[in-house]
């Protein structure tokens, strides 16, 4: 039985039990935190991925063909839906844009996850009432075949060991004024009770459906919302609404609304699994116009690295860059020969990857490909062909050498006891050794996982869950909780370095 069919058979229930009008075959996920195991690796590992841009939420500059019959400004899914032969146009695009060859390429290049942008209107088949009172209400038939294709794509990713971050890229009324919010024009999400209700309904449906699927690594609540006084309150109330459905350990991703400093502190104060998403582009502003790739790389390794690292620390490492690219302003490098332009992009990408690998729990390049024949700034496939975007993966795979654990554990414990015996003692030095052992074993789980070698990306969140398991089994750690965490994280580092 296919993976999703098997999972769906486990979560069937009456629609009334889900609390989602117009839905069927859904129930709430369990709220308890079972012991961490191999299935949890998908959500906690260091994410290295690519966006499947313009597959379900279309963007004219990426895939212009479906917009030829669009109405209005020809910039959004709503424009396409209002145009000629919209259903046939969209279904043809959904069935042909991402191919088996693309999936194979993603896996071969070492990526371990994809980010999948979707719109609330794609849920009309399983959740018919989601469109009521919204701009898409009269276009339900156009999008009736979307959800079955979305679930098929999630299943395909899982069969290849890839995680999927499902991103609500387009909310009812639009959360920003770009066409990729599903509609063109002024954003109208937060000024309309109907749009807010529809978006809430969409997210509750998605949380209910996705949380039981191990390789669904998270749900992003909104993509790039325009910053306003409503965002934080909406995040808080929406997360509170979703947690009884998906539990505290299902990752919910929130975009920083272009204020990473503020939201890093906010995320860091939460106990549940919430991840902050920051998008980094360097090709749109007047400042970008005056800089080449070498200069951007120098900036990323200089002052910005300190700022970004500080934000990651405030967020307890619960930070990702879900969109970035190799694109540089034509005004900065357009006068250079093609080969020299690629050299600048290469250095820019190198600096970005160094920054993200050190400070985040993951990243996703925007985007997999474009319809145009060549664009090494925005197409991951073209950037890889030009040797701008390197193949990714772990430096060390498989189990460490025999005896490495015992050797490093003994030295680490000896150093720990020796330091504290000379510095006033510690609450409970006996906690260090079992914590170190558990940390080593967990890092080994990631390093030898059947879906591919990885490291723990969201280490602080994983540590908190593992510590809770230890305390439940041993009656707590008391004042020595820091000592357990210290030993655990040293064990992780020991295994990763062996």
From TrEMBL:
<feature type="compositionally biased region" description="Basic and acidic residues">
    <location>
        <begin position="407"/>
        <end position="418"/>
    </location>
</feature>
<dbReference type="GO" id="GO:0009986">
    <property type="term" value="C:cell surface"/>
</dbReference>
<dbReference type="GO" id="GO:0046557">
    <property type="term" value="F:glucan endo-1,6-beta-glucosidase activity"/>
</dbReference>
<dbReference type="GO" id="GO:0009251">
    <property type="term" value="P:glucan catabolic process"/>
</dbReference>
<dbReference type="GO" id="GO:0005737">
    <property type="term" value="C:cytoplasm"/>
</dbReference>
<feature type="region of interest" description="Disordered">
    <location>
        <begin position="393"/>
        <end position="426"/>
    </location>
</feature>
<feature type="region of interest" description="Disordered">
    <location>
        <begin position="14"/>
        <end position="40"/>
    </location>
</feature>
<comment type="similarity">
    <text>Belongs to the glycosyl hydrolase 5 (cellulase A) family.</text>
</comment>
<dbReference type="GO" id="GO:0005576">
    <property type="term" value="C:extracellular region"/>
</dbReference>
<dbReference type="InterPro" id="IPR017853">
    <property type="entry name" value="GH"/>
</dbReference>
<dbReference type="InterPro" id="IPR001547">
    <property type="entry name" value="Glyco_hydro_5"/>
</dbReference>
<protein>
    <submittedName>
        <fullName>Glycoside hydrolase superfamily</fullName>
    </submittedName>
</protein>
<keyword id="KW-0378">Hydrolase</keyword>
<keyword id="KW-0326">Glycosidase</keyword>
<feature type="domain" description="Glycoside hydrolase family 5">
    <location>
        <begin position="90"/>
        <end position="368"/>
    </location>
</feature>
<dbReference type="InterPro" id="IPR050386">
    <property type="entry name" value="Glycosyl_hydrolase_5"/>
</dbReference>
<dbReference type="Pfam" id="PF00150">
    <property type="entry name" value="Cellulase"/>
</dbReference>
<feature type="compositionally biased region" description="Polar residues">
    <location>
        <begin position="21"/>
        <end position="33"/>
    </location>
</feature>
